Amino acid sequence: MSPVPKVTLAGGLEVCRILNGMWQVSRAHGTVNTTRAVEAMQAYTDAGLTTFDMADIYGPAEDIFGQFHSQLKSSGKDTPALQALTKYVPKPGPMERKVVQKAVQRSMTRMQVETLDCVQFHWWDYKDKRYLDALGHLSDLQQEGIIREIALTNFDTQRMEEIMNKGIRISSNQVQYSLIDQRPAAKMDQFCLANNIQLLTYGTLAGGLLSERYLGKAEPKSRAELYTASLSKYKNMIDAWGGWSLFQDLLVTLDTVAKKHDCSVASVATRYVLDRPAVGGVIVGCRFGVAGAGQHISDSLSSCSPELKLTPADHAAIEAVTQRSRDLMALIGDCGDEYRS
């Protein structure tokens, strides 16, 4: 198997093009066994998937990473370097230097690191302009060597431009991007390409709905069927996009393309987004330490392998289905607008 490809962010940090997402340990996806979580992280790292995405609000995610990182360091073995991307998601309020610095220090303590590779900033209310204060302080901490990369999460194109115009260098923006939700293509892609900003995407597999498991299946509606926060969230997105019948047409098409390339539906769905020009990497959720959760290592490696190349015919077949969907940009607004009133 080829080495996992990497992309270099604006500040020089190299991250894998497939990132291991840790939202799934926030307890909205099942009870987490920390010991098993650390063991599972080792398997991903051994496979070359060394980049982990987490947040200060993802339950024990930072602590679990810290345990894993500490265990690796104390093992005495020649271990690969890890890349740890976290998020700072404050409640709206005063954004003085001491507030921001305390939050950054808390993440460093939990993650058991001396500096932060990347802080991805999220803000709930654009009407409260104190997000510019917070980003200014993060930029100062970057200049002091405490943070390597400053990034955003769920910011729209307008606000990204505003932040860049304040002289704050942004390395990436984490947004939803999938065959279902292609809003970034409307204008964010172009802005990112012009400003050396990478998109790190989530929801690319619609919480697992974009897989063979749901091909030919009746529409899931109950909480028992939509048993994780991800499944419920992305089922709602499918409903807005065009509904279950159109989604089944998409799965049939993806299954045909996957069989042609001897890979999974998930690999095709991921590769499609990886091939978008502004996309630096795709975050694939990992339910580390959750009983009964499968590993997705082989699918992740396949999706970023140079051997998987979608052809113009593949794109045409897929887009013949997706172009029949509703315009989510018109329906919801730009990336992240679904999180704001």
Provide keyphrases for this structure.
TIM Barrel, eight-stranded parallel beta barrel, two-stranded antiparallel ribbon, 341 residues, single chain
What about the largest sheet? Answer: 8 strands, parallel, barrel
Q: CATH homologous superfamily, by name?
A: NADP-dependent oxidoreductase domain
Helix content: 25-40%
Question: Could you tell me the strand content as a percent range?
Answer: 5-15%
Number of domains: 1
Count of helical regions: 12
Based on the coordinates given, report the CATH architecture: Alpha-Beta Barrel
Number of β-strand runs: 10
SSE-based structural type: alpha/beta
Structural account:
By secondary structure, the chain is α/β, with parallel strands linked by helices. It has a single domain (6-339), classed as TIM Barrel, CATH 3.20.20.100. Helix content is 40%, strand content 14%. The protein contains 12 helices and 10 strands. An 8-stranded parallel beta barrel has the order 3-4-5-6-7-8-9-10, surrounded by 5 helices. Strand 8, helix 6 and strand 9 form a beta-alpha-beta unit. Helix 2 (61-74) crosses helix 3, helix 8 (244-261) crosses helix 9 (265-274) and helix 8 runs antiparallel to helix 11 (312-322). The longest helix is centred in the C-terminal third of the chain and has 18 residues, at 244-261. It holds the Pfam family Aldo_ket_red.
